[in-house]
Design goal:
The structure holds 2 protein chains of 2 kinds.
Chain A lengths: L1 E7 L3 H12 L4 E5 L13 E3 L8 E2 H13 L4 E11 L4 E6 L2 E12 L3 E3 L15 E3 H9 L8 E5 L3 H12 L3 E6 L9 H8 L6 E2 L2 E7 L6 E6 L12 E4 L2 E4 L3 E3 L29 E3 L10 H19 L8 E6 L3 E5 L2 E3 L4 E7 L3 E9 L5 E10 L5 E5 L9 E9 L1
Helix pairs in contact in A: 1-2, 1-6, 3-4, 4-5
Chain B lengths: L2 E5 L8 E7 L2 E5 L4 H12 L2 E2 L2 E7 L5 E6 L3 E2 L3 H9 L2 E3 L7 E2 L8 E3 L7
Parallel strand pairs in B: 5-8
Antiparallel strand pairs in B: 1-2, 2-3, 4-7, 5-6, 6-10, 9-10
Classes of the chains: A alpha/beta, B alpha+beta.
The complex binds flavin-adenine dinucleotide and iron/sulfur cluster.
The site of iron/sulfur cluster has 11 residues of chain B, from α1.
């Protein structure tokens, strides 16, 4: 089978990419192994769409707005199946219920989302009693399958999913004993700390981790300890919290296993892209959580519309090749996406800082120090993605720009 | 006298707000704009949120459906509502936007996805 654009993954990233590719006149196929809408189907809380739609929607509502549009678009067809291999020449194999399907695409959009860091990557003593779940698994069990996961809960990790699950457990009638965070600052958005923890008096313990899980058959408790600046447990600070469930919310990793031919950025764990959403291998585009872990779905949508549009232009032979500059991270910057900027098109750079900086200025500068764009804020913190919009660069005589921040510690 | 210190979450700037009741009037400081002041006043007097809950359903292969408040509701009654609606079972079919449990403490709850029979 042949198509102009193959979109792998039908979450918010894939749906938006497909819609904007179809708008350019391309024939589009979305391959989705599960339900359209992706992770949003289990994110029943509200807080989606404030920027894109100007209203506060739940995850399923945000998704259904795009699913309906996709259903009405005659240039988009959906294949229910799992893409199991992909090559540099944009040939992909999809395993479906009725057998294999080979698709040769003019352009491929990677919109496979991310997966959770599993329990095994943590170094916790104790056996493997029942009652240890990743936050996303617990979220699916509760919000999709309607199951009760536990009654006395400890959550390790203060990323958004951990915070949101703390509130969900509370509303389902369970008691959340504490949310623990090994870092000295919380991982999730301020909004979620206020609305998920403070509203329900759930304690957040920073610089604290779990060193041991107690219990043979079922979790009976956890031993916590404070950690030093190198995240090593401090002897003598151990405390036992009785509980029947330990929830791990210790990070998400972009899902790119299929694309071994793409080099991944060690900072974001996603592929390198330019401001058109294009990967290093020609004809491949990436967006959404597969590219970098987003905290707001609205940004996923904007980013994916851009990638989808350019994938269509590429497939239809309308994408011009331009000079590009590299986007470098200054000392205060943890990551930037995209890592390259093509001349002639504007860009939105998504930036994370390493540490909290107060009275801060974030800027993009040329190698000679000339500032291209800057934004000022009272503070930039590692728990939020900052977006910096840059005008189209033209007539460039340099090969890189630097993103950095200045201010007080 | 009520007094609170918190981060404004209305926009990403994240101003550190101080809200205090002085002689019956609410004073907010630390805000950079009017929206921050409004937020500070409501957080001190009667914080409200949009809340979502899972409700059981009968007559569908799906076991639960998520419902949300049609308007922000007081934080102080979120847990009470959660407990009340745990005992209620909704009947399929349901459509996104259907209003259910209208009499629950004056809060209107709206179904957030379509649920078909069987
Ligand atoms: C628990 C949680 C809470 C969140 N809360 C908020 C919030 O309050 N507000 C907000 O704005 N944002 C929130 N977000 C962020 C936002 O939901 C995500 O950034 C967004 O859903 C990412 O979209 P995506 O399409 O990239 O990935 P996903 O939604 O994960 O979609 C990826 C899709 O690809 C499919 N797929 C993967 N591999 C294959 C393959 N090989 N073949 C076929 N299909 C494949 C998957 O089945 C999945 O459907 C939250 C995220 C999570 C996880
Ligand atoms: S006070 Fe105004 S500027 Fe400051 S965070 Fe609140 S809304 Fe933003």
């Amino acid at each position: 089978m042949k198509t102009d654009v193959l979109v792998i993954g039908g979450g918010p990233a894939g749906l938006s990419a497909a819609l904007s590719a179809a708008k350019e006149g391309a024939k589009v196929i979305i391959a989705e192994r599960d339900n359209l809408g992706g992770i949003l189907n289990q994110c029943i809380h509200s807080g989606f769409g404030l920027r894109y739609f100007g209203e506060e929607l739940t995850g399923p509502e945000y998704a259904s707005r795009f699913v309906r549009k996709v259903a009405a678009e005659k240039n988009i067809s959906i294949i229910k199946g799992s893409v199991i291999c992909a090559d540099k020449n944009r040939c992909c194999e999809i395993a479906t219920e009725s057998g294999y399907e080979s698709i040769s695409a003019g352009a491929v959009v990677i919109a496979t989302g991310c997966r959770e860091r599993p329990a095994g990557t943590l170094n916790i003593a104790g056996g493997h009693p029942a009652g240890i779940f990743t936050a996303g698994t617990a979220q699916r069990l509760i919000n999709i399958d309607g199951l009760c996961v536990g009654k006395k809960i400890v959550i390790l990790g203060s990323g958004d999913i951990g915070l949101i699950m703390a509130r969900r457990f509370t509303l389902e009638g369970a008691k959340v004993e504490a949310v623990l965070e090994a870092m000295p600052t919380p991982g999730g958005l301020n909004r979620n700390i206020a609305q998920c923890l403070k509203d329900f008096n759930i304690p957040l313990r920073l610089s604290t981790t779990v060193v041991e899980v107690l219990g043979q058959k079922r979790v009976e408790g956890v031993v916590t300890a404070q950690v030093d600046e190198n995240i090593r447990p401090i002897k003598g600070t151990e405390q036992t919290i009785p509980c029947d469930t330990l929830i791990l919310s210790v990070g998400l990793i972009p899902e790119n296993d299929l694309f071994g031919f793409l080099t991944l950025d060690r900072r974001t764990k996603g592929p390198f892209t330019d401001n058109l959403g294009q990967c290093e291998v020609s004809g491949y585009f990436a967006c959404g959580n597969a590219l970098h872990v987003h905290d707001l779905v609205d940004n996923v949508t904007y980013e994916s519309e851009n990638a989808g549009k350019n994938a269509a232009l590429f497939a239809l032979g309308k994408l011009r090749s331009e000079n590009s500059v590299k986007v470098n991270c200054g000392n205060s910057i943890a990551s930037v996406v995209p890592q390259f900027i093509k001349e002639g098109s504007p860009s939105v750079i998504y930036i994370r800082v390493k540490k909290k900086i107060k009275n801060a200025m974030l800027f993009a500068a040329r190698p000679d120090g000339t500032i291209i764009k800057s934004i000022k804020r009272l503070a930039f913190a590692p728990n939020e993605t900052i977006s910096l919009e840059l005008p189209a660069l033209s007539g460039i005589s340099y090969d890189n720009i630097i993103i950095d921040a200045s201010g007080e510690a | 006298m009520k007094k609170m210190e918190f981060t404004c979450i209305v926009c990403p700037r994240g101003c550190q707000l101080n809200a205090e009741e002085i002689d019956g009037a609410i004073q907010v400081s630390g805000n950079s704009c009017a929206r921050g002041k409004e937020y500070g006043v409501s957080e001190l007097l009667n914080p409200v949120r949009n809340a979502t809950f899972n409700m059981r359903i009968e007559g569908s292969s799906k076991k639960i459906v998520a419902v949300k408040t049609t308007q922000p509701m007081p934080v102080s009654s979120i847990l009470e509502i959660a407990k009340k609606i745990k005992r209620v079972k909704l009947k399929a079919p349901l459509k996104e936007g259907d209003i259910v449990c209208e009499d629950t403490l004056g809060i209107r709850l709206m179904v957030t996805s379509d649920i078909s029979i069987g």
